[in-house]
UniProtKB/TrEMBL annotation:
InterPro entries: Peptidase_C15 (IPR000816), Peptidase_C15-like (IPR016125), Peptidase_C15-like_sf (IPR036440). Keywords: Cytoplasm, Hydrolase, Protease, Thiol protease. The keyword DNA repair does not apply. Transmembrane segments: none annotated. This is Pyrrolidone-carboxylate peptidase.
Length: 224
């Protein structure tokens, strides 16, 4: 990572989710809605710009149609930049999702080409063993993030956070969105990471906001 040079700027776009079945108050909606103001007070790390902050529907098709709009607009913005500097400035997508049974943060290393929803999404869809992208083949197909999850995890642990890498983002909307994002990222030379967070009852809002800010710090460090 580190080969971009001192003049490169990392642009980070962030998404969260609205409420869904069993989770009436999604912490990721709060985190992403408040992140810009929080980082303005806290201070962004040097060489990092916070781009879009988007709240997605907790629904497979609903989230992905919205996701592609913001993904595409980020690419279009990069293409408008002048000169070759555009290609040396990393674009990163961080997708926050809640795992209501979790007791710590999880950085997801991969997504799998399978939609098996344990409950209907917010548009009433409940697929079972359906490929997310049929042209990608089997439901066992996985796509991995190109970000150094082990290094990010180590750095965040040193800051005192209870965080671990994970290779299972589930088969619900979180995995569905992450799979599409990783596929788009690979095709367009950008980077993507999914982060599962617990409920605020488990880790309170203040700590979760600090975690989001620290993740931006660590990304800025790793990508410069």
């Amino acid at each position: 990572m580190g080969s971009e040079g001192p003049s490169s700027v990392v642009t980070v776009h962030v998404t969260g989710f609205k409420k869904f079945h069993g989770v009436s108050d999604n912490p990721t909606e709060t985190i992403v809605t408040n992140l810009r103001q929080f980082m303005e007070k806290r201070g962004l790390p040097k060489g990092l710009v916070l781009g879009s902050c988007t709240i997605l529907e907790t629904a497979g098709h609903g989230a992905v149609s919205q996701l592609y709009k913001v993904l595409q607009s980020a690419i279009s913005g990069r293409e408008k930049e002048i000169g070759s500097s555009a290609t040396s400035s990393p674009i990163v997508w961080i997708h926050f999702g809640v795992n209501s049974g979790a007791t710590r943060f999880a950085l997801e290393t991969q997504a799998v080409n399978e939609a098996t929803f344990r409950c209907p999404d917010e548009l009433g869809w409940k697929p079972q063993r359906v490929p997310i992208v049929p042209s990608d083949g089997s439901i066992t197909r996985a796509r991995e993030t190109k970000l150094p999850v082990a290094e990010l995890t180590r750095s965040l642990r040193k800051m005192g956070y209870d965080v671990a890498p994970s290779d299972d983002a589930g088969r619900f909307v979180c995995n569905y969105v992450y799979y599409h994002s990783l596929r788009f990222s690979e095709q367009n030379g950008i980077l993507s990471l999914f982060v599962h967070v617990p409920l605020f009852l488990t880790i309170d809002e203040e700590v979760q906001m600090q975690f989001a800010g620290s993740l931006l710090d660590v990304l800025a460090s790793v990508l410069h």
